[in-house]
Every structure is written in structure tokens, then in C-alpha cells.
Amino acid sequence: MKEKAPLWIVMTGFFLLSLFQPLAAQPVPEQKREVILKLMKLTHSAKLAGEIQLRVIRALKQSFPDVPSNYWKTLEKRIDVRELLELFIPIYAKNLSLEDLKKIVEFYQTPAGQHYLAVRGKMVGESMKVGKKWAMGWIIQVFKELKAKGYQPKGSTSPKGGIDSSPKS
């Protein structure tokens, strides 16, 4: 038994290493890659990624207001959103079969698919507003319930009847 233990340990080690290593992106077959790129083009993924880039740069500008504007213009040119899209390709490939991708592309090429793409942004915006309102309703309810039981949110001062975490003298 002692002679088999080191081999078992080594094999277990290799197995565990394989589980914890970051998943190397498997090469995406060219046909599947082309369909994914077509889908990304139809869904205006590059435009959406560009909008995210601009939002992040705006937020950075607010955090660093003293930085000259030419730095931000140079940064916009330096960051290539195509890099982000390339990172998405293996995700699409892993989660969608070639047949699924072809059917999705086919749908987006129909009038209904084109209409959906045209109104998607508006729908997402409206959905976010409704979702926020919905969440606030139950968040307020949870706060009331927990406060009634004597709990206080982190960082709040303890009003009368709340839990006082200050040291007793």
C-alpha cells in the first residue's frame, strides 16, 4: 500500500491542478467563429462595447478632473473594443451550438428580429426602471422588518430601540 500512495497522490495532484487552472480558451472552429462575428455585427455588439468604454472613460474623467483632455482622447483611441469582442467569442462558442447560432442569426435578420434590436435599448432602460422600483419596494419592507426586530444596517447610528454596539462603560 505504501508504494501506491505516492502515485495516487501525484495523480490526485494533477487532477486538482486541472480543475483549478484557468480554462484555456479552446480554439473556436472557423465556421462557428464566423457565425458568432455575424451575430455580434447584427446585434451591434461593437457599438455597445464602445458605449461601455465611453462610460468608463467618463467615470475616470470625473475621478481625475485635473488630467488634460488630450490624455482622454488618446486613451479612447488606445483602447480597442475589438479586444473585448474577441474575449466574448469563446463564451458564445462554449454556450451555443453552431446550429443555435445560425438560428439566432436567422431570427435577427427577420423584420421581427430587426425590430427587436431597434427597441432593445429602450426596453432595457424601461425594464431597469421598473426593476429598480420593484426591488426598492421589497428592500424597504425588509429594512422595516429587520429594524422592527432590532437590527440596524451597517454604518447607521442606533436610534432608540435599535441595537447599540458601543462598548459598555
* Distance separating the two termini: 63 Å
SSE string, helices as H and strands as E: HHHHHHH
Strand content: under 5%
Q: Please summarize the sheet with the most strands.
A: none
Question: What portion of residues is helical?
Answer: over 70%
Number of strands: 0
Show unreliable segments. Answer: 1-6, 16-24, 160-169
Spatial shape:
extended
Radius of gyration: 26 Å
Number of helices: 7
Overall pLDDT metric:
82
**Secondary-structure class:** mainly alpha
Task: Write up this protein.
It is a single chain. By secondary structure, the protein is an all-alpha fold. Among the domains are: 24-109, no CATH class; 120-150. 73% of the residues lie in helices and 0% in strands. It is built from seven helices and no strands. The protein has helices spanning 4-20, 30-42, 45-63, 69-78, 81-95, 98-108, 111-148. Helix 2 packs across helix 5 (81-95), helix 2 (30-42) runs parallel beside helix 6 and helix 3 (45-63) packs across helix 5. It starts with a helix and ends in a 21-residue tail after the last helix. Residues 1-6, 16-24 and 160-169 have low confidence and may be disordered.
Blueprint (SSEs and pairs):
Elements: H1 4-20, H2 30-42, H3 45-63, H4 69-78, H5 81-95, H6 98-108, H7 111-148
Give a short overview.
The chain is built from seven helices and no strands. The chain has 169 residues and is mainly alpha-helical. It starts with a helix and ends in a 21-residue tail after the last helix.
Task: Describe this protein with a few key phrases.
169 residues, mainly alpha, 73% helix, disordered C terminus
